[in-house]
């Protein structure tokens, strides 16, 4: 890899570190190509990505970035799982590590907040952005449905009372 390629890679990594909601660092020693492809597919499905980069170049790219705290984890065979959604990458990494002992989560960062292994696990258990939006929409829509039901209820009650009176009179 020549100097121009290294500079391009550092710039790409810098953009990743700048724009990602969460970055998870893990060791992947012993993973087969098929297992790594599975991890990449899971990340892509969740709206994230997986990147293997040279630790030295990643450390250079981390300088001055919000998630610079992960530099301590960059040693050995490391893989970065990242996403704009603050939960997606952590869910993917945690789920894959649960299924495969060869992926060992070291830590990560959510913006400027450093995450240890327990922190990554806690983030992975949080609801995703889509789940939060749907629950908020449900909370907003529930009172309207209750009001509509309350407004319609007296009319249906009156109708049932009238039909009962009509049946008795007949």
From TrEMBL:
One of its GO terms (molecular function) is large ribosomal subunit rRNA binding. SUPFAM superfamilies: Ribosomal protein L10-like (SSF160369). InterPro entries: Ribosomal_uL10, Ribosomal_uL10-like_sf, Ribosomal_uL10_bac, Ribosomal_uL10_bac_type, Ribosomal_uL10_CS_bac. It comes from the Bacteria. The keyword Ribosomal protein applies. Keywords: Ribonucleoprotein, Ribosomal protein, RNA-binding, rRNA-binding. Coiled coil: none annotated. One of its GO terms (biological process) is translation. Gene3D superfamilies: 3.30.70.1730, 6.10.250.290. It holds the Pfam family Ribosomal_L10. GO terms for cellular component: large ribosomal subunit. Part of the ribosomal stalk of the 50S ribosomal subunit. The N-terminus interacts with L11 and the large rRNA to form the base of the stalk. The C-terminus forms an elongated spine to which L12 dimers bind in a sequential fashion forming a multimeric L10(L12)X complex. Belongs to the universal ribosomal protein uL10 family. Forms part of the ribosomal stalk, playing a central role in the interaction of the ribosome with GTP-bound translation factors. This is Large ribosomal subunit protein uL10. It comes from Thalassorhabdomicrobium marinisediminis. The gene is rplJ.
